[in-house]
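Researcher: Re-running this chain for the archive, since the previous output was lost when a drive failed. Same request as before.
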Amino acid sequence: MSDPTEANSTAGSAEAAGPGEPGGGTGGRRVRVVLVDDHRMFRTGVQAEIGQTEQTGVEVVGEAADVDQAVTVITATRPEVVLLDVHLPGGGGVEVLRRCAPLMADAEQPVRFLALSVSDAAEDVIGVIRGGARGYVTKTITGTDLVDSIFRVQEGDAVFSPRLAGFVLDAFASTDAPPVDEDLDRLTQREREVLRLIARGYAYKEIAKQLFISVKTVESHVSAVLRKLQLSNRHELTRWATARRLV
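Model: Regenerated structure tokens:
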């Protein structure tokens, strides 16, 4: 997904040729969607890119910023597809899936979930797929591709960003449960996101921009990670993450 600050220009290109027909329009297709993400600016950007119903066929019927809000909105609106962030206050995307399991199982009007996250970590992908999500795409996806993914999920297809499908195939091909990493379990979901980006060499400002948080918040998360893992600096942190194949 494009940065929210670029949403208007991206949405404009979508108007020129919507996903339904070569010259624009949706071919009569419609899908009702709920956006679940704890960053208001990101939700605004997604709404700007995909929510012009006459051009995209997508009608955004609700938004939520945490687990409780998500369950309430989804239950009240009964959308066909939910765009679900993996890391949310109140238990994360997996908790939303657990509490919405009866809606997913409804044979007549199933609610289907498509994970939309900045994380491309194997454990995050596998966790939400095991929880019942029909697909997983990262926030680098374009607006046009996201609309296409939404319609495919509505129709019952499984959709993944490139390379993420391999995580799922490997996980479900193995009968062994993934080992528990007690050190990693000490970290919150947000701290894991910051850890991976630090280990990949991102500067604090770049991390702040990608996660839609302040630089000071990034610094606080890094300090918490170093303290919990008993590490001294980002170089030790990078080695720690690389050894666990988190990078």
